[in-house]
Amino acid sequence: MSKPTQQQPKPTTPAQPPSRDERIERELDEALKETFPASDPIAVDPDVPRAPGKSKPGK
């Protein structure tokens, strides 16, 4: 009979967070999955949302 081989534990490396592009790509894929089979495409706005500016009264 042969001895069972012992598996060496794999070294664990801390998981790196996904890059910004990977995160955006994953979010777009998820949005597409959630809208399928709808006929309207998802709305994509590549601009960063901005806070509304202060308006001067009377103008």
Description:
This protein is mainly alpha-helical and 59 residues long. The protein contains 1 helix and no strands. It has one helix at residues 20-35. The protein is elongated, with a radius of gyration of 25 Å. It starts with 19 loop residues before the first helix and ends in a 24-residue tail after the last helix.
Keywords, please?
59 residues; mainly alpha
**Backbone shape:** elongated
DSSP strand tally: 0
Radius of gyration: 25 Å
| Class based on secondary structure composition and strand pairing | mainly alpha
**What's the pLDDT, averaged over the residues?**
75
Query: How big a fraction of the residues is strand?
Result: under 5%
Largest sheet: none
Helix content: 25-40%
CA(first)-CA(last) distance: 91 Å
Per DSSP, the total helix count is: 1
Please trace the helix and strand order, writing H or E for each element: H
Report low-confidence residues grouped into runs of 5 or more: none
Summarize the structure.
The protein has 59 residues and is mostly helical. The protein is 27% helix and 0% strand.
Helix-strand layout with pairing:
Layout: H1 20-35
